[in-house]
């Protein structure tokens, strides 16, 4: 999809990523460090992380289409390169959400979850979550610079 209602699809998809990826990361971190939150939010986190993972390649594909339309510049190419890395962060967030769900289901079935395993998963989720938030900021900043430098 290259346009939606006359607007470049990239512009629309970006807003989903900018809102959902950090929100999902924060909720995943909350679930990782607070078991009571995990009981209530784990399935939401899993669903949101799946949505972010699906939207990420759609956003980058739409961005490549837009790049072809507006022309290449060093700033746009830098934004595209860093934007292509977002899939790795989305996948890490999804893996973290899956691990949280596995821990949740195991605990709900009365299986003891090793505290070492729970700690490793928590560290992974916190690192993936913080990295995702930072990467969304970096990608957005480079996109804003690429966009607004052509207007100014």
Please sum up the structure shown.
With 152 residues, the protein is mainly alpha-helical. It has one domain.
Look at the helices and sheets and give the structural class: mainly alpha
Report the major sheet.
2 strands, antiparallel
Quote the average pLDDT.
93
Distance between the termini: 29 Å
**How many discrete structural domains?**
1
Pfam family, one: DUF2231
Keywords: Membrane, Transmembrane, Transmembrane helix
Protein name: DUF2231 domain-containing protein
Characterize the structure shown.
- With 152 residues, the chain is an all-alpha fold.
- It has one domain.
- It has five helices and two strands; from the N terminus they run ββααααα.
- Strands 1-2 form a two-stranded antiparallel ribbon.
- The radius of gyration is 18 Å and the shape is elongated.
- Keywords: Membrane, Transmembrane, Transmembrane helix.
- InterPro entries: DUF2231_TM.
- It holds the Pfam family DUF2231.
- This is DUF2231 domain-containing protein.
């Amino acid at each position: 999809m290259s346009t939606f209602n006359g607007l470049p699809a990239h512009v629309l998809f970006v807003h989903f990523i900018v809102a959902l990826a950090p929100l999902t990361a924060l909720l995943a971190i909350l679930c990782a460090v607070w078991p009571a939150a995990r009981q209530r939010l784990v399935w939401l986190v899993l669903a949101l992380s799946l949505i972010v993972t699906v939207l990420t390649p759609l956003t980058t594909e739409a961005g490549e289409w837009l790049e072809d339309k507006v022309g290449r510049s060093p700033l746009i190419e830098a934004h595209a390169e860093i934007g292509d890395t977002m899939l790795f962060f989305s996948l890490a967030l999804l893996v973290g959400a899956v691990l949280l769900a596995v821990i949740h289901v195991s605990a709900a079935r009365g299986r003891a979850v090793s505290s070492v395993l729970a700690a490793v998963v928590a560290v992974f989720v916190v690192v993936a979550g913080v990295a995702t938030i930072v990467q969304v900021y970096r990608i957005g900043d480079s996109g804003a610079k690429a966009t607004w430098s052509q207007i100014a």
